[in-house]
Amino acid sequence: MSNVPQDLKYATTHEWVRVEEDGIARVGITDHAQEELTDIVFVELPAVDAEVQAGHPIAVVESVKAASDIYSPVSGTVVEANAALTANPALVNTDPYGEGWLYRLKIANAAELDSLKPPADYAAQIG
Questions:
Q1: Nearest Cα to Cα of residue 23 among 126, 110, 124
Q2: Which pLDDT tens digit goes with each residue over 68-124?
Q3: What span, in angstroms and rounded, lies between the C-alpha atoms of 54 and 32?
Q4: Is residue 27 predicted with pLDDT exceeding 90?
Q5: Got the DSSP string for 12-29?
Q6: What is the model's pTM?
Q7: Taking a C-beta distance cutoff of 8 angstroms, is the pair 52, 72 a contact?
Q8: 53: Cβ contacts below 8 Å, ≥ 6 apart
Q9: What whole-number distance in Å separates Cα of residue 27 and Cα of residue 116?
């Protein structure tokens, strides 16, 4: 059974968002997504200052099974990419909601957060 933390919002494409105290969104892939991908061997992170639109590809995660696009759950500007994943992409497997986050984003339109799923709805989606 996948872990679905209650303090996050979720995209149907298996990304999570945590809005931090400074209003910046931290984004990663869900526990369910990393389980489906299995052993992650490479992460292509977005560039700092990149502008992204909700629902558009922003990163790529490669596992021993496949390469998967990661979609931005909300629009905004990338303010940080998780450099630790360059040296240790397996952090996405071992700690998807902690040290395995992908990037931080200055949200362009906070109303987009309302279109994301609450934890109960995401848990129902993944069964």
A1: 110
A2: 999 999 999 999 999 999 999 999 999 999 999 999 999 999 999 999 999 999 999
A3: 21
A4: yes
A5: TTSEEEEE-TTSEEEEEE
A6: 0.96
A7: yes
A8: 72, 75
A9: 13
Name the 3-class secondary structure at 11.
coil
C-beta of residue 59 within 8 angstroms of C-beta of residue 52? no
Residues across the chain: 127
Which residue in this structure is represented by tokens 């360059």? 86
Residue 120 exposure: Cα atoms within 13 Å on the Cβ side: 0
Fold for 9-120, please state it: OB fold (Dihydrolipoamide Acetyltransferase, E2P) (2.40.50)
CA atoms within 13 A on the CB side of 45: 24
Bridge partners (DSSP) listed for residue 61: 43, 68
Helix (H, G, I), strand (E, B) or coil at 116: coil
Given the structure tokens 């990304």, which residue do they identify? 15
CB hemisphere CA count around 70 (13 angstroms):
26
In which residue are the tokens 């990163």 written?
A: 59
